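Protein in question kept underneath.
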Amino acid sequence: MTIELKVPESGESIQEVQILKWLKSEGDNVSEDEDVVELETDKASMDLAAPADCTLQKILKQEGEIVSVGEVIALFEKGSGKPAAKSAKKEKKAAQPKAEAPTDSPKDGNAKSSSSDEDSQATPSGRRELLKHGLSASDVSPAGKTVRREDVEKYVNSISSRPSSDVGNRNESEMEEVIPMSLIRRRIATKLVEAQQKAALLTTFNQVDMSYVMDLRKRHGESFQKRYGVKLGFMSFFTKALIDALKAHPELNAEIRDETNIVYRNYFHIGIAVGSGKGLVVPVLKFAERMSFAEIEQSIQEFAGRAKSNQLKPQELSGGTFTISNGGVYGSMLSTPIVNPPQSGVLGMHAIEERPVAVNGQVVIRPMMYLALTYDHRIVDGREAVTFLRRIKDAIEEPSRMLIEA
């Protein structure tokens, strides 16, 4: 009996997926619930398992192809699977002579050149070096009668120091690599363009003295880690300060819907931008207002670990009402983050650097961080944006207030 393997539904917003990697080959016997293919949506990666104990009879969609939800990507044969396995082996055997054919009758012009002119004009090591750089023996002026490896290296070094116009166009195609954009990268590109085209984005800045938070972390970091099994980072402080500011300025936790309505949310789903193997992803802390410092840090640590291995689930990457982006972990001093539609704001954190500041009439050196708030001016007025960012600054510079309220 033939069984179809279809792309399952993974959420209302997901209409297509990309075939990342087939984990099994045609003719392989697989067990029920054994992973056979890795798929990528525009939000995350996921594995698709075999529907029953069966044999993978036919792969219909190859790696890299984009397919729609509900589309059949493979056929399975329920049963022993031996005929399919034998068939696959026969196909492999039949394919072997074809793989050897190019050796007897090369089609590449460079190969012909190597077997004729270059055989007599270059030493074996010289020929290898010529082939490596896509050159022919006639391109190089040897020191002796034959082209040696040293002659090729000298020639390559000489043209690398010339203006690019001297090199010519011979190897331009070999110097380029065309790779299809992944669904996640395409999704990121679409969202960024959408934000620029639909929203009226504006950014305001401030700087915050990190001395007080750093002192708290120094005094309580060790006991915090022993008790909760996770380091006390900066992100939990900023998340707490952010939620306090969002409660005071609900327009930054709102969205425009249907171009005519503003939806104010009474819950706080905070997106935390983290790097992954596929690009930037934003897992969401659902109901972050209910979370403790430890729960925030534990969740972020778990998200970051699974993001690197592309194991985040689509539902963990959706539903955010506001986003925090920390470019400081990469050394960014200042940036203008882009709002993630339909959200109305994003907070940008940056690197901590010692700077001279005036305190009580005296110039002192303090660990300072620039903060950036990008907001949708259609919903948020400039005054609200500035006071919102100022409220976050005040909370970070007086963290004991957050601890008392927590």
Notes: The domain at 2-103 is CATH 2.40.50.100 (OB fold (Dihydrolipoamide Acetyltransferase, E2P)). Confidence is low (pLDDT under 50) at residues 81-119. The CA atoms of residues 353 and 367 lie 5 Å apart.
